[in-house]
Amino acid sequence: MKLPFRLAAALLAAATASTLVIAQAGQSGQAQVPPTPTFRAQVEYVEVDALVTDQQGQFVRGLTRDDFQVFEDGKLQDISNFTTVDIPVERAQRPLFSPTAIEPDVKSNERPFDGRVYVMVLDDFHVAPLRSQRVKNAAKDFIARHLGANDVMAVVYTGGRARDAQEFTSSKRLLINAVDRFMGQKLPSITASRNNEYFRQRDGAFQDSRIPDPDELQRGQRAQSTLRTLREVAEWFGGVRGRKKTLLFFSEGIDYDISDVIRRYDQPANAAGAIMSDIREAIDATARSNVSIYAIDPRGLATLGDDTIEVQQFADTDDPGNGIGATSLNNEFRLSQMTLRQLAEDTGGVAIINRNDYSNGFERIVDDNSSYYVLAYYPPSDKRDGKFHRIEVKVNRPGLTVRSRRGYSAPRGRVTEPKTGGMPLEIFETMNSPLPVSGVTMRVFASPFKGTAPNASVLVGVEMLGRDLTLDGGKVDLSYMAVSSTAKVFGARNDALTLNLRPDTRERVQRSGIRVLNRIDVPPGRYQLRIAARDQGKATLGSVIYDLDVPDFYKADFSISGLVITSLGSGAMMTAKPDEGTRTVLPTPPNAQRTFAQNDELALFAEIYDNANKTPHKVDITATVITDDGRVLYKNEESRDSSELQGAKGAYGYTARIPLSEIVPGSYVLQVEAKSRLEKDKSAGRQVQITVVPAAKP
Fold first, then answer.
1. Are residues 233 and 136 in the same domain?
2. Is 515 left (phi over 0), alpha (psi -120 to 50) or beta?
3. How many domains in the chain?
4. Residue pLDDT, tens place only, 182-208
């Protein structure tokens, strides 16, 4: 598994840098958040999430720090920090006319993260190809029905397919796309392999009655790869604090016979001892990072029907020691489920096995991750000796049950500082945080346009609130980069803003904020933008993570750029660095605001790319404002002719101005769609949700 952001941030030291001195006015242009425990810097502390239920299995609310006792190795510990986490399951709002929610084109850290955190591990090494669809159906069902709008999830493959994986996101579309790429590649069962080997060497002599598994070497390597992935995910997950961390492990279990550590025959491929050690290391890693594994077996009820099909004919022998036959098949199934149970139970999770319906199990996972208590304490010893320390959590009220981690293993070796490439450590850590960081509030948009072939030119806008910044000669560090699905870094950049503001400009920035626009050149593909800001005067930091899909504007016959939006009212925000590509087509710089006053006027810009223009034809472009129930309140239509492009693979630039005075306050969908008359089905479009609010009283 590749975790690209931890590797990529160090490259920012060699990034493009610029200094912006802001000396005067520039170009015009719900749920309660549970607190996160904070501790002394550079001190390792132990965090324990405790799920407390009554005799009916319901979560017990209202407990305080004084109701808990935490013991390490039998000794009572002082609870240094205590938090109650009670997270609602939020549903994304969608227009009534749309079957799915419209993904926002602006990301922000205005609201501190208050959702659940999952990593879905799809064990392609240990799922039979014929059961791939079962995994996809179950995984997509969890995402579609049980993932809240305030949650984030990552998808990881045990087969090391980093390109198919998905970093942390709240986009159900991206997560489902990652799941759809799943294909099981499990080896034939041990029993089937031994049975086939028996017939292949029937006239040969085995060293004893037990038939060797011809796939044993590869089987052992795959088992170790899966366990190594679980360990690495748990270690990666350790950077998330103050939240229960859950790993959803879709797998049929390790298919290596770990019950026979010492073989009676000479088998150099024997990896049973190493695999058992890897299981312990994976569990130790989850204990260190406070991660729970929920194992989901896609085989459903244990009928063994699919596995029996692999064995066309059982060997004609009654010797149970040879490792073939129905008894061996049942033992193999039992051992694989045993590994799932061990990984789940030893990490505080649950094994969902022998079920054809996962709904109750999925609801339990959500419940376990929605309401719990977080207790933290400083360990009595800071020795880095790797020893296991047992943890026990008790509640001083009768009749209650507590589920929590069983312990943790102390780290080993010396503390090593991360290689930041010269970047300040706090910015490095903020850039690499799996979750957005609140502190310096930012709103971010990113709109891809056709660039110099074969690249796209992505316009990135970052808006910061004046209240978060030191405005009297303060300095703001702004760093960003685009990381591809293959861990390549593009557009890494550091901007330094010096805010030497006159009194009138200071008041303007304090009221409206400040905007920075930049361009990043990237080839077509899937990216995550990582953007971090630091106000040096207030020593505050913030970060935003933005999912970005960049089409291939040069190869697609017909496509549309990103949609950039502004309004006359947004000109009040100061723009530290304008964008030359949109300066002449919009009345004010593009902005990240999607709520507009009724007395304002919207302006938008997009480019339509028409690469099939050898035959003369027309293109119809329409901008509409659509109500929640699908009614069109406003429409702007244009027809363009392919002769405008003069035979080149060019673009139709499209602008529209939309007065809001006749639009009743509420939520709407702004849609831009282009259709080619050359082919009936050739169209491209963008949708953005906007909100209109009453005009402020003078």
1. yes
2. beta
3. 3
4. 999 999 888 878 777 777 776 555 545
CA distances from 490 to 132, 425, 481, 648 (A): 34, 21, 6, 28
Residue 614 phi, psi (nearest 5): -70, -30
Closest CA to 686 of 401, 505, 449, 474: 449
Three-state DSSP at 229 gives: helix
**Residue 414 belongs to some domain of the structure:** no
Torsion of CA 270, 274, 280, 286, to 10 degrees: -110
Q: For residue 433, how many other CB atoms are within 10 A of its CB?
A: 19
Question: Which residue, chain included where needed, has tokens 């010797």?
Answer: 319
Pair of tokens at residue 163: 């390109």
Instruction: Give the Cα separation of 201 and 208 in Å (integer).
Output: 13
Residue 540: the pLDDT is: 93
pLDDT number for residue 15: 52
Tokens for 399, please give them: 């009749």
Q: What is the DSSP letter of 445?
A: E
For the cut 80, the answer to whether the pLDDT of residue 55 exceeds it is: yes
Q: Which long-range contacts (CB under 8 A, 24 or more apart) does 57-66 make?
A: 59/367, 59/371, 59/372, 60/397, 60/400, 61/86, 61/371, 63/373, 63/395, 63/397, 65/375, 66/396
| Residues 6+ positions from 398 with CB-CB distance below 8 Å | none
CA distance 684 to 21: 40
- Whether residue 404 contacts residue 393, with contact meaning beta carbons closer than 8 Å, is answered with yes
Structural domain range at position 573: 4-24+421-693
Determine the Cα–Cα distance for residues 268 and 275; give it in Å rounded to an integer.
15
Q: Which residues contact 55 (CB under 8 A, 6 or more apart)?
A: 399, 401
- DSSP sequence for 81-123: EEEEEE---------TT-SSPPPPSEEE-SSPP-S-EEEEEE-
Strands 525-535 and 540-550: antiparallel
Which two tokens mark 116?
Answer: 């659940």
Residue pair 328/318 in contact by the 8 Å Cβ criterion: no
Beta strands in 109-226, from DSSP E residues, in sequence order: 117-122, 152-157, 166-169
Give domain status of residue 98, yes or no.
no
Question: Is residue 38 a part of any domain in this protein?
Answer: no
Task: Tell me phi and psi for residue 322, to 5 degrees.
Answer: -85, -5
Q: What is the pLDDT of residue 38?
A: 33
DSSP element (H, E) containing 457: strand 456-464
How many Cβ atoms sit within 10 Å of the Cβ of residue 612? 15
The verdict on 478 and 562 lying in the same domain is: yes
Q: Quote the CA–CA distance of 265 and 209 in Å, as a whole number.
A: 10
Task: Please give the pLDDT value at position 26.
Answer: 34
Q: Work out the end-to-end distance of the chain between its first and last CA atoms, rounded to an integer number of angstroms.
A: 57
